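Figure 2 data, in text form.
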Amino acid sequence: MDARADGGKLPNAFFAPASSSFADFLAAHRPDLLPGKRVDLGPGVTFDAPHGTTIVAVTHSRGVVMAGDRRATMGNVIAQRDMEKVFQADDFSCVGIAGSAGIALELVRLFQVELEHYEKIEGTVLSLDGKANRLSMLIRNNLPMAMQGLAVVPLFAGYDIDNTDPATAGRIFSYDVTGGRYEEHSFHSVGSGSVFARGALKKLYRDDFTEDDAVVACIQALYDAADDDSATGGPDLTRRIYPVIMSVTADGFRRLPDADVERVTQSVVDERMTHPGGPSAPLRQP
C-alpha cells in the first residue's frame, strides 16, 4: 500500500483490529494485489503461459522429501530449462508448484507471507493442518483464473511437530483447482508427468525408507516421468541441471546441496545406461 498519500504515515487499515490472515487483509484493502485478481481475461479468452510440471513427495522414517524437475513449457516449446518449483514454506514445511508458473510463484510468495504473518500476530506457529488449510484457501481464491486456463495445483508437505512419532510425522497434502485438500500417504505426485512418477513410486516405495532412500526414489520417479512425458525435464548432465530436492525433518527444512543431488542423479543415470527401465520391484517379499 502507498503511504505517501497521507504524509508518509501508514493507512489506518494497518492499525485496525483484523484476523491473523494476511490474505484476508489484502482481500479487504487491496484485492488487486492477490494473484487471482491481477488479470481479467474476459469470458472465453485464454492464452499460452509457462507451466511448471512434475513434483513428487515421499515420506520416510524421519520426515518427508519433496523434489521437482526443472522444465517449464509453453505449448510445445520449452520456456525454461532450470526453473525451480519447490520452495520452503516455513521452518517445517515446503511446497511444490505445478500449473501456471507466474501465478503459482505469486501464490507461493503469498503463502510464505501468510504463514509468517500468522506467527507474528498470534505469537505461535500454525499446525501443519492449519498450514494446509491456509494454502487451500489461497487456491480457492484463484478459481476464476483457473476457469480461464491459469490453474495452480501445488503439492504441500511438512513435518508435524505435534506428532511424537517421527516415522509418521512426515505428511503430504494434494489439492484440486477448487481448493479441495486431500492428505496423501507414503508418496504422491502432481503435474503432467505425475501418473508416470506415481507408478514408479508405487513399485519402489517401502515403509522402512530412510531419507537417502526417499531421495533416490524421487529421482527415479522424475526420470520415469521425463521418459514418458515431454513436459517433464530429465537430468541435463551437459548443463548440470538436476532436480531441486527439499527435506523436512524434526531438525527443520533443508535443501539438499547441489553436489549431493548431482552425485545421486549421476548414479541413477549410470544405472539406467544398463537398465533403461530402472530398478525392478520384487515379485514377492523375502
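Caption note: The domain at 49-274 is CATH 3.60.20.10 (Glutamine Phosphoribosylpyrophosphate, subunit 1, domain 1).
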